[in-house]
């Protein structure tokens, strides 16, 4: 499906729907898909400015930035869907993969989640097998549902996607590696793929040998690796991850971790000296340019206005 993005500042180009674009990249390209984690509109704009072809909305970052809470199941479907919709529509030509946690309930709620993410412009989502009171995959003490419940979640997601005539990419995530071991994790993903999942996601892989084994055993299903620095999984570059057999690599903390350090440093400086010490090149206009000033000026001018001609 080809559509014009004229209302979002993309009138000079048309694009394939983001979900279709992500699906084609999975099946037609040999490259690994690299998706930095974004936690709000500003970090998403920066990822776009740098030139990434795909971005990832982190659940942990959404909980932290939107709610000021830890990733322990505080975020509801509405919290996550609203956040994803905003990010996905900043530039609808760039696919967004979004965390959908457990799907937020039984099969009907999972179907509702898929429908809402689809209508919000999300290109891909992952649904996991943790219990509803979930937690970050790189924390201890996780608990998972039985394999039948997990496959029902994935089946409901796939059926909802198909009813919508959507290309939304369904990613099946299991946290059973830490709770039940490798064999059970493989078994669960095999069942999820049989239920129609497009991509496999085994959370918390701990070694390169384990990673290679997972990718080989789950082939031909493409496999995603979650690159949470200083978590359970070793730090790999995209090239290293591709060599191990992965097709997608996400970096959930890539924006929120450095943001914490930078923001805290400035706040401490204000408290100690009374000034920010900010780079003099970071002017209000610089900020607004990052988040779409030129597009706003263009829309106004094309409508015959001159409101922003002297900005």
Helical percentage: 40-55%
Q: Can you count the helices?
A: 13
Largest sheet: 8 strands, parallel, barrel
Mean of pLDDT: 91
Given helix and strand content, the structural type is: alpha/beta
Distance between the termini: 37 Å
In CATH terms, what is the architecture of the largest domain?
Answer: Alpha-Beta Barrel
CATH topology descriptor of the largest domain: TIM Barrel
Your description of this structure?
- It is a single chain.
- With 311 residues, the chain is an alpha/beta fold.
- It folds into 2 domains: 5-260, TIM Barrel; 279-311, no CATH class.
- The protein has 13 helices and 10 strands.
- The protein has helices spanning 18-28, 41-50, 59-67, 77-88, 107-119, 147-164, 176-180, 182-194, 208-218, 238-244, 256-273, 284-290, 293-302, and strands at residues 2-5, 10-16, 33-38, 55-57, 96-99, 124-128, 169-174, 199-202, 223-226, 248-251.
- The protein has an 8-stranded parallel barrel with strand order 3-4-5-6-7-8-9-10, surrounded by 8 helices. A two-stranded antiparallel ribbon has the order 1-2.
